User: What shape does this take?
Amino acid sequence: MSNIIVLVIALGCLIGAATLRVTQPSPASMSPQIQVMLPPAEEEPLAEAEPLTETEPVMPPPAQEPSSAPSAPPNPSITPSPTGTPASPESSVIPPNPNQDPNRPLHQRMLIVDTHVETPLLISEKQIKLRDNQGQVSLEKLRLGGVDVVFFSIFVNPYRYKNIAKSQADFIIQSFKKELTANQDWIELATSHEDITRIVQSGKIAALMGMEGADPIGDSLNNLDYFYKQGVRYLGPTWSTHTLMADSSGQPRPRWKGLSKFGKMAIERMNQLGMLVDVSHLSDAAFYDVIKTSKQPVIATHSGVDGGFNHPRNLSDDMLKLVAINGGVVGIVFYPPHLDKSGKATTESVVKHIDHALKVMGENHVGLGSDFDGLDRPPPVGLKDASEMPNLIAALQKKGYKEERIAKVMGQNFMRVFAEVLK
Assistant: This one.
């Protein structure tokens, strides 16, 4: 009997154990406090991302929800650039001015660019000094006028130096560079947009060199390369006389009927080098040839406009529109005979040409090219030298222009082109 009882008890224990195993909850259904940690699954390492190349598309930003407010009509005076340049220059294009204190006057807060002054000729022929030049451009006058970036013209008079144009250009360049070295606490040579940015941020004036007239180039692309290596960053194919590169507006009888074959080759080479093409002084036919040939934005470093005063040296409305479509900039000159039929001018005369160019080209394609130290007539009243640039700003304000538009004319537009071409 006792054996039977023991057997029954043993069978009961076995049945209880089996029941407990069947009703045990699975790990998945267990309380969060009792989780079973599984080893992580082995994953293949991520491949390193390849950098974007110029040919790879960049995804556009996601489309924004349409606004219920009506959009403003397009401004017909603003011509879009085919190069895709934004209407408002990016901060990387415009170096911050070290004098950005809002309490300072506008001319000390705006970045001011002048694309044509003739001072190197005075340095080489009259031994004037940049620091105390009694003419229209000196370091003190540039500083007083708030001028930050200056293109100094390397001009060889073909009537005096026709047979030694290259060596004379060399002499002018070396004389000018000596002056820069002697005044390196105030001014420094720039050859790229990056240089301009660095120099302006340091509080100095950025000096660049441009060549007016291709006589020193002759018919040699090697000479073009040579002067590029010397630091020349724009070339005007002509002055007031024809060259082996192109016809000038200063001589009525054409030689090439535009650009010569060599001239077209030279424009292509300038595009390759990153040298700006200056269309000031060109004949009409040569201007149109440059527009057809150049694959980069062109500039007029010192020109008036026919809408301000019709003159053979000035640019027609058709030319202004083509420069805008090209993405370039026209620097309005201060030379009175190109501004008014009287041969005399005032600050308002310069504003008249600026105003017309803005109406035809849009606000992104107009700048300044004074021709200071190269004027053989009295300068405009109110703009006697570089120190009086604030008078031009005041006159533009009086005309009703807002600060943003004035800043573009005073320098931002040219800085955009420098960022694109002067690599």
About this structure: Residues 1-91 have pLDDT under 50 and may be disordered. Strands lie at 112-117, 147-155, 187-189, 205-212, 232-236, 276-277, 299-303, 329-332, 366-368. The CA atoms of residues 110 and 203 lie 13 Å apart.
